[in-house]
TrEMBL record:
This is MOSC domain containing protein. PANTHER family: PROTEIN YIIM (PTHR30212). It comes from Leptothrix cholodnii (strain ATCC 51168 / LMG 8142 / SP-6). Residues 28-170 form the MOSC domain. It comes from the Bacteria. GO terms for molecular function: catalytic activity; molybdenum ion binding; pyridoxal phosphate binding. Signal peptide: none annotated. Gene3D superfamilies: PK beta-barrel domain-like.
Amino acid sequence: MQLLSLNLGTVRPLMIDGRRIMTAIGKAPVAGPVAVGRLGLAGDEQADPSVHGGLDKAIYAWPGEHYAWWQAQRRERGTSLFDETLPAGFAGENLTLQGLDEQQVWVGDELHFPDCVLRVTQPREPCFKFNAVMGYAQAARDMVTSGRSGWYLAVQQPGTLEAGQPFELRAGSRSVGIAQALAGKRHKHLR
């Protein structure tokens, strides 16, 4: 398992349905080590701390393997004029991971990197901003129904992270899986 990309973003405006909305969903890859504190990555921002950020949602992880599926969704729905490759950070994730997905991760599991430890807290539940970034109105629903949501992490042991680092998954209590927790949210998005 590997950290493919480390992504940071700042709050900036996004036009959604003619309204100017402040968001930090647009993350971009960075090179070199980044400090990790209890509230997340140095230089990363969140626009709405009521739903993003804080101790239990300090960092957002996303399986890089999901990008091919999302590119296909955008093509099928006619929202993408080009068959472009979506860049790391496009879904708003801080960590683009390789070799780990929602079926393998449980609340309480820990990701051990060379210099820090992150604890899995919950799946991402997307909002209208994700629809806007993906370019179609049902993207949030597709995230939940497909199980391709990624998950939030708390910082168990501060340190640093850098793209390219390997990491190890260490099991927690294994009482609620990310896929199981996400399935519990599906009814909300199927209405």
